Amino acid sequence: MKIAEVFGPPTSPLWKMVKQCGVDYVVGTFGGRWDKDRQPDEKPWSLGPLTRLKKAYEEGGFELAVIEARPPLNKAKLGLEGRDAEIDQVCDLLVNMGKLGVPVWCYEWMPVINWSRTSTDLVTRGGALVTGFDYADPRNQQPTEYGTVTEDQLWASLKYFLDRVIPVAEKAKVKLAMHPDDPPISPLRGMGRIMRSIENYQRLLDLVPSPVNGITLCQGNFTLMTNDLPAAIRQFGKQKKIFFVHFRDVRGTKEKFQETFHDDGMTDMAACMRAYRDIGFDGICRPDHVPTMEGDDNSRPSYSNIGRLFAIGYIKGLIQAVYSEKALS
User: Fold this and answer.
1) CA-to-CA distance for 272 and 231, rounded, in angstroms?
2) What domains sit in the chain, N to C, each tagged with a CATH number?
């Protein structure tokens, strides 16, 4: 298992801190205002900007291993006019990732509403701040401008999307790693959500069978889907379908939960690590969401600098302990 962190250019103190913790891989987001060479006709997923993004990371000492960003996809998800143009842009991204040797694209199928929280400053251990979600919050019942979108509609639009992009991904040798709905609950503000259960993930894999059709196993979401997360890891791992891992934890239920320190949630993290070891997972793992700790600010909830360092150290310790067990057996 290889540890990565997610951040975008330009370089910052976080880059050096992460590197000092022994991290050599990065999960990339699309460049922004830092890319002064971007031409008017270029998109963030065009070959030129992606090439410069990869070069910027390499100059900082990091290998670009995953892209966790995407072109607009709401029309594709909702099956609206204009979806083919959006899918064409995804195909462009995959072709360009293939040219640059970036092997994994993390995407999701949440229409209109991406990851959702009702709180961003819940107090946890020692006064650290975490995010939380409460389905009973009235804001979760307010419909979006798109009204009701059913799960059947989303399955149909996903099938249409995968039929188009999987042949491109196969040729480019880029793996598609589907991230769960966050939170894994349906509906949310009238929007159906389909990446919310172990059974639905198996349906995804069977929908368009391909070596590149797989999973981002975000533990914070998957642990709200099942009482036996290590078994789910083994189920999908035996099929060689776990392409990317978000190693984090929560406490609660899918209807009401809060995020936690990596060592303070409801999941047996060591058991999960043993499952990754047993399936031979050697891909990219990133700590994902972390508490905001004393001395840091909460301007980017779940992504404070100090919390990330704690998480990296925790994961490195687990890897060394668990993988040494195998060496001794």
Assistant:
1) 9
2) 2-328 (3.20.20.150)
Q: Is 231 helix (H, G, I), strand (E, B) or coil?
A: helix
- Helix ranges restricted to H, 173-298: 198-207, 219-222, 229-238, 269-279
Q: Read off the pLDDT of residues 5-26 as tens digits, 9 standing for 90 and up.
A: 999 888 889 999 999 999 999 9
| Angle subtended by helix axes 83-100 and 47-59, to nearest 10 | 40
**What is the DSSP pairing of strand 129-134 with strand 256-259?**
antiparallel
Q: Categorize the per-residue pLDDT at 31 as very low, low, confident or very high, splitting at 50, 70 and 90.
A: low
- Does residue 53 contact residue 30 with C-beta atoms inside 8 Å? yes
Distance (Å, whole) CA 104 – CA 140: 32
Backbone angles phi and psi of 6, in degrees to 5: -110, 125
State the pLDDT confidence band at 32, using cuts at 50, 70 and 90: low
CA distances from 231 to 176, 206, 254, 295 (A): 22, 19, 19, 38
Q: 187 preceded by cis ω (within 30°)?
A: yes
The structure tokens listed for 130 are 């975490």
pLDDT in tens, 76-85: 999 999 999 9
- pLDDT computed for residue 141 by the predictor: 85
Cα–Cα distance for residue pair 12/15, rounded to 1 Å: 6
DSSP state for residue 151 in the 8-state scheme? H
Nearest Cα neighbor of 193 from 140, 261, 258 is 140
User: Which stretches does DSSP call E strand in 91-193?
Assistant: 104-108, 119-123, 129-134, 175-179
The CA dihedral of 39, 40, 41, 46, to the nearest 10 degrees, is 50
Q: What Rg value do the Cα atoms of the chain yield, rounded?
A: 19
- Do 49 and 96 contact (CB within 8 A), yes or no? no
